[in-house]
Amino acid sequence: MTDVVAAIQDAWTELRIHRGRVLMSLIGVTVAIAALTASVAVGDLARSTLVSSMEANGGRAATISLWVETSSADGTPGDPVAALDAIETAVDRYRIDYASARMSTGLTLGGAGASVQIEAVEPDFAVMRHLGVADGRFLNESDRARLAPAVVVNRGTLELLGGGGLDAHRTIELGGTTAVVVGLVDRGLGDEWPQAWMLPRDVLRIARDDPSAMHSSLSLEAWVPAEAADEGLRMLRQDLRGALPGAMVDGNRSDWQAFEGYDPLLPLQLTLVGTAVVILLLGALGLVTVAVVSIRQRVRELGIRRAFGASRTRIFVAVMLESVVGTVVAGTIGIALCIFAYRLPVVQDALTQGIGGMVLPGFPMSAAVTGLIVAAAVGALAGSVPATIAVRSKVIEAIRF
Amino acid sequence: MVPLLRLRGVTRQFATIDGPALQILRGIDLDVAPGDRVSIVGRSGSGKSTLLNILGLVDQPTTGAVELDGEPVALMGARARDRLRGASVGFVFQQFNLIEGLTAAENVAVPLHYGAGRRYWQRAHLAREMLHRVGLGHRLDTRATNLSGGEQQRVAIARALVRRPRLILADEPTGALDIETGSRTMDLLDEVATEAGAALVTITHDLAVAARARRVLRLADGRLRALEPSAAGALS
Question: Which part of the chain is the MacB-like periplasmic core domain (chain A) (predicted)?
Fold first, then answer.
């Protein structure tokens, strides 16, 4: 125990004595670790942002989608209510935790005279597609019992009504039916197109009473474990075909991970990490160069320590620890600089540009931990060269000449 | 009585690239008793530093035996030898060899970094106590580079003695000092060594310094011989 504490104390003392040299040699390491940490952090953020974006479009892994077309080939309309019943029965049968029937239609917004795109979805849809609610709430089970249907709108729909917040528009008229606005979805830039979300049965009811409403065919989306996706798809397809004779039922996996071998972030991450590794190597090279030169000037001092009982191992560890302690301190400073920069409003704005309303998560811990581990590893590698030179010096010759 | 340090038939030779091996030491026999005072004189290149390496357990002889307290050093591992050197031998050097950037007290504490646990944790106190002993209680926190030559050598003496070694090896301890300061330094070295009961082996080419010892040995042609009583007497 004493040996370990004493070795660390030796290393710290050496850093203190040679602080000018150490400071100069560690600037490169600080910059290198900051660059590496920033690269890993940006890579993590980009990955999580892109994954969220892809999951918002195609569903989480694994999402299976089935289309149910009840209209016959000659154009005779089918029965969408029967299709919805079949979908709900299938979801209940297989006890799927997250599933939603889905349908699109356009309804006229009373007062504005414009059309709003209505997404008929179940409450699970918000979780399945990362649909964030900025105000109020998303659809829930209690909305099924409402006499006036619940609706969640986006900012574009509110703008059609003259702007303002959710409180200013507690009810709206859609396709001649009064609906209660329960929540506001705000996806920032690119969300100007008027949209609203309602429960499928409410939409079917409105569409039945509004002959002008043309709705798409029904579909089912289910978020299931990846290993159950293929079998689940087959079973659901079979069930729906059986329940809806004459209907066309087909489906596939729609999430981005369904495309094997496709990693859209790989080139970006390889570029970032490659750049950081080059910077790191240059920093380490500078560190080794300064350390090797300085260790030759310190032969006398190391000889003194050897004369007073320091073993070769102790000298090796002390010199190595100097390097490790130095690079860990430098790495910590580099990581702190990264975190500080990450929290600057200008950087936050730059990182969230084009993704309005997005709140950045905290600084990725994985980036900080990676930076610290790499800093220690660089210190150990860079320290091993001067440490080897140090233990080879001869004691008395070092002291006498 | 078992001597503190015993050398028997010690030789040391070094290989050369394209010639015969260099024979530096030839059949050295030496006994150093506890509390002994021995001086070794010799010309430059006579092998004094090679002998110092072996006496200080830094180097191993090519042939022959070195024993400390009757224990053959050759049978010890490198780590054990390093520990034994730290615990039993104190060095005083010609160029003081204090570590720049450290204060006087920190320099004196250096050997305690390699000692047993209790002494390591008490190193600051022990170092200050030793500096008071050599009359530098007022220079504890002064950096080594800001001390005079005499003061630096006193710090070096305090450092050599702080682990209470049984053998002090002084390599040209007055070589970098003027005559008066050198004389005072040798008085101090002798006094604190006596107080600690440590043997003192001084390697020097200064015959006046050598004459202060009870035994004066001359290293020439790789062999160690006692100086004739008449010559030793003349020195003193």
Answer: 23-198
CA distance A155 to B194: 94
Same domain? For A108 and A176 the reply is yes
Disruptive mutation site among B88, B110, B118, B167 for chain A (greatest number of A CBs within 10 Å): B110
A115-120 and B22-32 strand pairing:
unpaired
Residue after which a domain boundary falls, among A208, A226, A254: A254
Query: Which amino acid is residue A365, in one-letter code?
Result: M
Dist. CA A33–CA A38, nearest whole Å: 8
* The one-letter amino acid at A281: L
| Helical spans, DSSP H, in A196-311 | 200-209, 229-243, 266-297, 299-307
Q: Chains A, B: CB contacts under 8 A, how many?
A: 85
Pair (A50, A64) in one structural domain:
no
Q: Is A357 exposed, middle or buried (0-12, 13-18, 19+ CB in 10 A)?
A: middle
Contact A379, A327 (CB under 8 A): yes
Q: Give the domain-ending residue among A254, A274, A298.
A: A254
Do A152 and A138 meet the contact criterion of CB atoms below 8 Å apart?
Answer: yes
Is A90 in the same domain as A236?
yes
**Domains identified in chain A, total number:** 2
Instruction: Please give the order of strands across the beta sheet that includes B215-220.
Output: B89-92, B167-171, B199-204, B37-41, B215-220, B223-226
| Per-residue pLDDT tens over the stretch A110-167 | 777 788 889 999 999 999 988 888 889 999 999 999 889 999 998 888 888 877 777 7
For domain B34-59+77-235, give its CATH number from 3.40.50.300, 3.40.50.2300, 3.40.1190.20, 3.10.410.10: 3.40.50.300
pLDDT in tens, A184-228: 987 766 677 889 999 999 998 888 777 666 667 789 999 999 888
Q: Could you list the residue range(s) of the whole structural domain that residue A167 is in?
A: 60-254
Question: Do residue A86 and residue A198 come from a single domain?
Answer: yes
pTM, 2 dp: 0.62
- Taking any CB pair shorter than 8 Å as contact, residues of chain B touching chain A are 49, 52-53, 56, 58-59, 78-79, 82-83, 85-87, 90-91, 93-95, 97, 99-102, 106, 110-111, 113-117, 120-121, 159, 163, 171
B85 vs B161: CA distance, rounded Å: 13
A44 in helix, strand or coil? helix
Euclidean distance between CA atoms A185 and B116, whole angstroms: 69
Short-list B207, B65, B68, B95, CA closest to B155? B95
A388: pLDDT strictly greater than 60: yes
Phi, psi of A134 (to 5 degrees): -80, -30
